[in-house]
Design goal:
Layout: H1 3-16, E1 19-20, E2 30-31, E3 34-35, H2 36-43, H3 49-54, H4 57-69, H5 79-92, H6 94-105, H7 115-123, H8 126-143, H9 147-167
Antiparallel strand pairs: 1-2, 2-3
Length: 172
């Protein structure tokens, strides 16, 4: 496990850790932020809320690495950008997180990271890009139906992610 992924995973688990089944959360039952649907897809079979509750941190980390970190090609992004994109992927879904990144760098927004997106990110200033992604995430949060219920928590998460992203490297 790379140091960058380990640091990003630790941050995500601060916000996603523990079993939750909030009646207003459209994701339903989650543990370590892994939904029943995600766990079912990962395991390739039907799972129950009890299976979600019994999910280990180790398996959650494997899911996050394969389905979120690697899907967003975070190892190819500058550290602070990888950090905020990974958090966005966990919180908003991979496709939406990639589209937020693509919109922030001004390339076609298709939800898939390819050479054009990688090149645009490489030519951007990481601090400015992280700020732009964060601003776009805040607008997205505010547009969601459950903002009244979860908005303050989402905002805290985003501000924490932004703060860590800025301190992630001295090259900002």
């Amino acid at each position: 496990m790379s140091d960058a992924f380990a640091q990003a995973l630790a941050h995500v688990l601060l916000h996603e850790g523990g079993y939750v089944d909030h009646p207003e959360d459209p994701g339903g039952a989650t543990n370590f932020g892994i939904t029943l649907a995600t766990l079912q897809s990962w395991r390739g079979r039907s799972v129950t809320k009890a299976d979600v509750r019994a999910l280990t941190k180790g398996e959650a980390g494997e899911i996050y690495k394969a389905r979120y970190w690697d899907s967003c090609r975070c190892d190819e992004l500058p550290g602070p950008v990888a950090f905020i994109v990974f958090d966005a992927a966990v919180n908003h879904g991979v496709g939406r997180a990639v589209r937020l990144l693509q919109e922030a760098v001004g390339v076609a927004s298709d939800g898939r990271i390819g050479p054009v997106t990688i090149a645009a990110v490489a030519s951007a200033r990481p601090a400015a890009l992280v700020t732009e992604i964060a601003a776009r995430r805040m607008v997205l949060y505010a547009s969601l139906a459950h903002f009244r219920t979860f908005g303050l928590g989402w905002s805290r998460r985003l501000m924490g992610t932004l703060s860590v992203s800025y301190s992630y490297t001295s090259t900002l």
